[in-house]
Amino acid sequence: MSPMMFSLFLTFTLSLLGFVLNRTHLLSALLCLEGMLLTLFLALSLWAKQLDIILYLSLPMLMLTFSACEAATGLSLMIATARTHNTDHLKNLNLLQC
Fold first, then answer.
1. Domain segments of the chain: what residues?
2. Which CATH class is domain 3-97?
3. Which residues contact 47 (CB under 8 A, 6 or more apart)?
4. What is the pTM of this model?
5. Tens digit of pLDDT for each residue in 75-88?
6. Interatomic CA distance for residues 13 and 22, integer angstroms
């Protein structure tokens, strides 16, 4: 395994571990998701460059677009829950009572 692939794998694993274990605030969960998506973007970009096929060069831009949409949706949901519940702690949010 090359050092670049190892660092990308380690970054993705640390972001996933942070998402699973550190679930106190909604903002920290969104930041961990954003780190995972950026790692996948970098891996997909390196993979497309390594293959040198024109068809695969648009995939990283498509993933980056979806990542931006996910970030905007997550932040808008965080603002909406912070306004209605006065907190962004995930323990206090009950999705069944919305």
1. 3-97
2. mainly alpha
3. 56
4. 0.80
5. 898 888 888 878 77
6. 14
